[in-house]
Design brief:
Blueprint (H helix, E strand, L loop, with lengths): L2 H11 L15 H11 L11 H9 L13 H13 L8 H9 L4 H20 L8 H29 L2 H12 L1
Length: about 180
């Protein structure tokens, strides 16, 4: 299969695991890192999660502390979101969004919404790949996606700035202390 066909297949079929398919038992750090390589669709080797990154996310208040030395479903859900979001916005901007999005219902409903959005977007962008496109078509689709990503990122950053209030900073500090 050619590279474009493989890419289309990845976009159509690969998805993060749904909440109910997460491991039923708590995982140690190395197991979480290993699990996340399968969880993160389309990530290249240099963007993999490391134990140091997990520890930094905990220190920054993005991720709850492990219970003992074990990580549960909520940690996998948060890490999936963090790893995906940091490809688009700075890590420091992720906290206000996560806090607002999980405020009322918690992490599970947020994660379900996230995976639904991922599914919809992956399906939508996969449809932009046509059978045997020429260079002009590839260039056109790449330009369209790039402009869309730029505009989406611009708006996303401004909306997150609106969410990032002094109250969210206080809540992050409280979460870090737990």
């Amino acid at each position: 299969m050619d590279k474009l066909g493989e890419l289309k297949k990845t976009l159509e079929e690969s998805r993060p695991a749904p909440w109910d398919m997460f491991p039923d038992i708590a995982l140690y750090m190395d197991q979480v890192v290993s699990y996340m390589t399968r969880q993160l669709v389309g990530f290249d080797g240099d963007t993999r999660l490391t134990p140091a990154m997990v520890n930094n996310y905990i220190k920054d208040g993005l991720l709850p502390r492990a219970e003992g030395k074990k990580y549960g479903k909520e940690h996998i859900a948060y890490l999936t979101a963090i790893c995906m979001f940091k490809q688009v916005i700075p890590v420091r901007d992720i906290a206000p969004l996560l806090e607002a999005a999980t405020k009322d219902g918690g992490i599970e409903p947020f994660y379900d919404t996230l995976t639904s959005l991922i599914d919809n977007e992956m399906t939508k962008v996969s449809q932009k790949i046509t059978e045997e496109p020429d260079e002009a078509q590839i260039s056109s689709v790449a330009l369209e996606l790039l402009v869309s990503a730029y505009c989406s990122q611009f708006l996303c950053k401004r909306l997150i700035e609106m969410l990032d209030t002094n109250d969210s900073l206080k809540n992050r500090k409280k979460r870090k202390e737990k």
